[in-house]
Design brief:
The termini are far apart. The longest helix is centred in the first third of the chain and has 30 residues, at 49-78. Helix content is 72%, strand content 1%. It is an all-alpha fold. Helix 3 runs parallel beside helix 5 (102-131).
């Protein structure tokens, strides 16, 4: 076969090879087809350096695309964020799947979506740790499990430490984090939570909140003895109750007269 670039068949194959090898606009399937056609025509056996150069350039481009595709597939399989980041960045550097459709685009898009979900879950876990939100941590762990991924070791360790804390320490840590961030609403909410739990545990109706529990107050017995109204036989204070009852009986008639006489005296 005439391997001259002026040959119609060779010229057509070279043109297809060049078109399929345009940087940033290379479709892997088209490039593979162009290379296969060129090899059938004997480009690799040609003494024409121009033909060989174009063939080698196309083969190198195809090799990079195949490697990028394999890297994406491996990253999707392992479901690791760092591997997905490298694979997606590498694919973007050669514009793999730029056409927006086809097998390569599907793999690139799958890797991007998966990476986005992993980043979202990691962000949720970081926020939960920062705010000491146990329920949010559990949501992050559940979503990670459903996606088939593992959170970064540092996040796992931090969450494990927080989730192992007793309730009281957990609430105190949450309050501390709110104070550190200057979150006034969070400080108020955490303080109310701590007080609510405290009072619910000891009970607001317990004796410790009664006046009799106040250490500076005298007992009724001491008070009665001091005023001479304590009856040891009965074990109670008497006198005030009798006096008050007598005064109440006196008010309707005698007290009114006294009040009127006092008023006349003042006049």
């Amino acid at each position: 076969m005439d391997m001259s670039p002026t040959s119609p068949a060779i010229g057509d194959a070279l043109e297809k090879l060049q078109a399929a090898s345009v940087p940033g606009k290379t479709v892997r399937y088209d490039l593979q087809q162009a290379i296969n056609h060129a090899l059938k025509l004997g480009f690799d056996q040609s003494t024409d350096l121009n033909l060989l150069s174009h063939l080698e350039h196309a083969q190198a481009a195809l090799h990079r695309m195949n490697d990028a595709r394999a890297l994406l597939e491996e990253a999707i399989r392992t479901r690791k964020a760092d591997a997905l980041i490298r694979a997606v960045d590498n694919a973007a550097s050669i514009n793999l799947g730029y056409e927006g459709e086809g097998a390569d685009w599907d793999v690139v898009n799958e890797a991007r979506v998966l990476l986005g979900k992993i980043k979202s879950i990691n962000s949720m876990a970081e926020s939960a740790i920062d705010r000491v939100e146990v329920e949010l941590m559990r949501q992050a762990l559940q979503q990670a499990k459903e996606l088939g991924i593992s959170l970064p070791p540092a996040l796992q360790s931090a969450m494990k430490a927080i989730l192992s804390l007793p309730g009281d320490q957990l609430r105190q840590l949450r309050l501390k984090r709110h104070i550190q961030r200057g979150d006034e609403a969070g400080v108020v909410a955490s303080t109310i939570d701590i007080k609510t739990v405290f009072f619910s545990k000891i009970g607001t109706g317990r004796v410790i909140f009664g006046l009799q529990a106040y250490p500076l107050l005298r007992s009724s017995r001491d008070f009665g003895i001091r005023l001479g109204i304590y009856n040891p036989a009965l074990g109670i204070c008497v006198g005030f109750r009798v006096d008050l009852s007598e005064r109440k009986r006196e008010l309707p008639s005698q007290e009114k007269k006294k009040r009127r006489s006092l008023c006349r005296c003042k006049l």
